[in-house]
Design goal:
Elements: E1 18-22, H1 27-30, E2 44-45, H2 69-74, E3 79-82, H3 91-103, E4 107-111, H4 124-133, E5 139-142, H5 145-155, E6 160-161, H6 170-182, E7 188-195, H7 203-215, E8 220-227, H8 228-231, H9 239-250, E9 255-259, H10 264-272, E10 276-278, H11 288-295, E11 299-303, E12 315-317, H12 326-339, H13 347-372
Parallel strand pairs: 1-2, 1-3, 3-4, 4-5, 5-6, 7-8, 7-10, 8-9, 10-11, 11-12
Helix pairs in contact: 3-4, 7-12
Pfam families: Glyco_transf_4 (PF13439)
Keywords: Glycosyltransferase, Transferase
InterPro entries: Glyco_trans_4-like_N (IPR028098)
Length: about 375
């Protein structure tokens, strides 16, 4: 099922529905709403309650307090919309959550972002979580036709396909586009961001070939960014990766940058400085990183696992949980260097897409609320 541009017409005297979005403050969820000042306000989303931890950091929403049947029964809303945050919950608790939503006369909607959790080495828990959620949901959404097909095969359910909205704010997109247009010289910069080594990442499968390929290209640089918890004895320390990166940096084969988690502005500056961002994923489904690159005009080289290539124009190389084709990696990097594709998403495109995305959500909410009542 594809997105619909026009939302369901509101009935006279009705109020916008109140949505318990899980979470509410995530950039993806914020950009499901109409763009401020350009359209009438849509559904009202409750703010994220303080998480169920002793000393939450400012702005922290994890773990979501809304995913508690007691919270559901104690608060007023019309519909719950689940996106993220259920990674660690027992499937029986998720079933109890949806049951509590229904027992109190509310609707339950889920956007299936991940069909294979990028944080879980073993897929069984996430599969069981989806088995508890997907059949019970009143409506399902997902981001790509391939994901919708998989949902249909696995659960016999139809999911409305709504594309991922922009990640980077539109003003920053405009500045980045201007900077890229003015950048006439400089090396062709390939970026591989190992971050904090999610379970779905396999950077050491790529790095030797990637470094050799980039070294063979004229005026090209491979930049590798790593978080300190990978490189300096932190929770995600990887001794083999650290050793290879330090050695390659000492030999001048890579430009190594070690830092903590980047705030948004620094992250956007970094992504905007790249000509090609290589995603080292061996499994996954969709990618917000990919969308941020597109917002900033940076070409993406994505693996063939998951449905990354259905999100927007990307270069691809063969990589999944059991296999990598290093020849396809080499060829794709060389193509990017030779052709310098510009496959970013422009501001006008993102603005129109956001209107469509907001309208599609309003329609889904209206359909669910028309079924369960308010």
């Amino acid at each position: 099922m594809s997105i619909s541009v026009a939302p369901a017409a509101p009935q006279a005297g009705t109020r916008p529905p109140t949505i318990a979005s899980v979470p509410s403050g995530h950039v993806y969820v914020r950009h499901l709403a109409p763009e401020p000042g350009l359209a009438a306000a849509g559904a009202h989303r409750l703010p994220d309650p303080p998480p169920r931890v002793a000393d939450p950091e400012p702005g922290q929403w994890w773990p979501p307090a809304m995913l508690d049947p007691a919270w559901v029964r104690a608060h007023d809303f019309d519909l719950m919309h689940l996106h993220f945050g259920f990674d660690a919950l027992d499937p029986r608790d998720l079933a109890a959550l949806v049951d509590a939503v229904h027992e109190t006369g509310r609707g339950f909607v889920q956007t299936v972002h991940d069909l294979r959790n990028p944080h879980h080495v073993d897929r069984r828990l996430h599969d069981e979580q989806l088995d508890a959620l997907v059949p019970r949901a009143d409506a399902l959404l997902t981001l790509t036709p391939g994901a919708a097909d998989e949902i249909r095969r696995r659960w016999g359910r139809e999911a409305t396909v709504v594309p991922h909205p922009h990640v980077v704010d539109l003003r920053t997109m405009a500045v980045a586009a201007d900077c890229r247009a003015r950048r006439r010289t400089g090396a062709f910069r390939v970026g591989l961001h190992v971050k904090s080594l999610r379970a779905g990442m396999a950077p050491m499968r790529l790095l030797p070939t990637l470094a050799d390929t980039v070294a063979d290209l004229p005026d090209a640089v491979l930049q590798v960014n790593a978080h300190r918890d990978v490189m300096e004895g932190g929770a995600r320390e990887d001794v083999a990766l650290r050793g290879w990166l330090r050695s390659a940096a000492a030999e001048g084969r890579i430009d190594l940058r070690v830092h903590d988690f980047l705030p948004d502005k620094e992250l956007w500056d970094y992504l905007g400085s790249l000509d090609l961002s290589v995603l080292p994923y061996r499994f996954g489904t969709h990618s917000g990183w990919l969308e941020a690159c597109r917002d900033l005009g940076t070409t993406v080289l994505a693996p063939t696992c998951g449905y990354f290539a259905e999100q927007g124009p990307v270069l691809s190389y063969e990589h999944d949980e059991d296999h990598i084709d290093l020849g396809s990696l080499d060829a794709a990097v060389r193509r990017a260097h030779a052709e310098r594709p510009r496959w970013g998403a422009g501001i006008d495109e993102r603005r129109a897409q956001r209107r469509q995305v907001a309208a599609a959500h309003e329609r889904v909410y209206a359909e669910v609320l028309g079924t369960v009542g308010r």
